[in-house]
Amino acid sequence: MAKPKLTYVGDAKVRALLEAYACPVPLHAVRARFMGNIASPVLGASPLRSIESLWPDGLPTFEGTNEANRLLQALMSLWNHLARHQKPTKPFRFANTEKLASPEELSTLVVMRCEEVDNFLEGFFDGEEELEVSEDIADELDTFEEIYRLLSKVRDVLTNGPDPQTETGLPDFPRHVRDLSLMAEAQVNNIIQACIAWRRAAITSQGVKRRTLH
C-alpha cells in the first residue's frame, strides 16, 4: 500500500514546534539545511539524519510516540515541500523579509542570509570533510562561497561599523544587500540544477570530469 503524502503543515506550525522543542536552528536556516541535503550528492543522505542534526545531541526527549510523530511528521512535510524546488520551474526562495529602511533591518537580513548559506552548505556536505563532484558543481560552489564572503563582509560592517581605512558608509548598502541576496538565491538554484544534471549523467553512464571539494 502506498504511503500517504504529507501535506505541508505551514511555516507557522513548524516554527512553533521548533521553538517548543528548543531547536537552536531557526526556521529560515532549517529550510536552507534541508534544501542543501536534498540537493546533496552524498550517498545515503537522509531526511531523518538531517532532522536529528538540528539539535546538538540529536532529537529531543518526547513524552510519548504521538508527540514524537507530531514533530517528525511536521518536519518531513517541510522536507517534502522543499523537494519540489528541484524543478527549474519552482526555484527555491530564501525566507521573506520586511523593508530595509534602517541599518538594524539590513543587519538582520544579512545575518539571516549568512545563516541560510551556512546551513545550505552544511546540509550539502552532510558531515563529509570532502566531496567528489563534477566540475560544474564545483564551479557553482566556488561562486556561492564568493557571494558568502561578500555577504559576510557586509554583515561585519553593519555589526561592527565601517573600517576607518576604507571609510565604507551605509548609503549603498540596501542595494548591495538586495543584489547579494538575489545572487545567493540564484546560486542555490544553480547548484541544485548542476547536481541534478550530474545524477542524470551518472545514470546514463556519461563521463563527467570530477573535482574533490574540501
Structure description:
The protein has one domain: Up-down Bundle (Four Helix Bundle (Hemerythrin (Met), subunit A)). It is 60% helix and 4% strand. It has 7 helices and 2 strands, in the order αααααβααβ. The protein has a two-stranded antiparallel ribbon. α5 runs antiparallel to α6. It is globular, with a radius of gyration of 19 Å. The termini are far apart.
Looking at the overall shape, the CATH architecture is Up-down Bundle
Shape: globular
Radius of gyration: 19 Å
Count all strands and give the number: 2
Q: What would CATH call the class?
A: Mainly Alpha
What is the count of structural domains? Answer: 1
Summarize the amount of helix as a percent range. Answer: 55-70%
Q: Biggest sheet, in brief?
A: 2 strands, antiparallel
Which residues sit in consecutive blocks of at least 5 with pLDDT less than 50? none
| Named CATH topology | Four Helix Bundle (Hemerythrin (Met), subunit A)
Taking all residues together, what is the mean pLDDT? 87
How are the strands of the largest sheet arranged? 1-2
- Element pattern in H and E: HHHHHEHHE
Number of helical segments with 4 or more residues: 7
- In whole angstroms, the N-to-C terminal distance is 42 Å
